[in-house]
Amino acid sequence: MEELQHLTGQLAGYGSVIATILAVMLGGIAAVVMLYKLATSVINPAGHYARAMKVGFGTLYAMILVVTCLLAAEKIGLNVAGLGGPVILLVMVASVIVFFLLPFLPRLPFVVGDMVQIKDVMGTVEAMTAYQVVMRTFDGQTVFIPTAVAMASAIRNFSAIPHRRIEMKIDIYAADDIERARSMLLEKMNDNPKVIEDPAPAVYIVNVTGERASMVAYCWVENADWFATRDALWVAVSSTFAADDKVNLALPQLDVISAP
């Protein structure tokens, strides 16, 4: 009983120390998170500066851990005089080394929450262990894929970059006004608020036969808007072409020849 009271007294004595350490650590983490969100609003985290951002913010987190540990050691009475400078210098040197080694380090092809396609299964990664990858498909099925099989397969990660391209293949009649059709497609893509400006939407003529002119239209949207925007664009293009008297969609034709 006396030992329990002694232990309780010691824990009560360290209560203020624990509260101070937690306040420093949580405050530092919150500050780094806010700074990261501010930085990613200006700089694309998946662009040319991705490696620098990863190493930079990783260094800030390491600094917070170092400061928290030094503060805790000082509060419990340990002599940490002269340790702060060398430890911070060590963290900085390690960060520089990681910056140059990062491209050569292996990385996972996806993380939990990414939308991926493994073999013929497309969905969102819900969990990943050493034994299996758990995916939730868009029709609500839960699919378990052995990790060895997943890592040995070709993996398409649709969340690795923030934007995704929409491709629309359209055929019109070769006798129609091709430039008018191109302008109509560009107008519909530019009018959609989900389509981003850079890269700009584009339309190309890829083939012209005796009866048809084949066109392909490209535009880029945020990953989360891909399905809805593609649907909206197809509806808009179909309605616009149907209402125009100079451009018509070339629908498949079936020729029936009756024997004499």
Automatic annotation (TrEMBL):
The keyword Cell membrane applies. Residues 166-234 form the Mechanosensitive ion channel MscS C-terminal domain. It is found in: Cell inner membrane; Cell membrane. The chain crosses the membrane at residues 12-35, 55-73, 85-105. Gene3D superfamilies: 2.30.30.60, 3.30.70.100. The keyword Transmembrane applies. Residues 109-159 form the Mechanosensitive ion channel MscS domain. One of its GO terms (molecular function) is mechanosensitive monoatomic ion channel activity. It is a multi-pass membrane protein. Keywords: Cell inner membrane, Cell membrane, Ion channel, Ion transport, Membrane, Transmembrane, Transmembrane helix, Transport. One of its GO terms (cellular component) is plasma membrane. Mechanosensitive channel that participates in the regulation of osmotic pressure changes within the cell, opening in response to stretch forces in the membrane lipid bilayer, without the need for other proteins. Contributes to normal resistance to hypoosmotic shock. Forms an ion channel of 1.0 nanosiemens conductance with a slight preference for anions. Homoheptamer. Belongs to the MscS (TC 1.A.23) family. This is Small-conductance mechanosensitive channel. It comes from Halioglobus maricola.
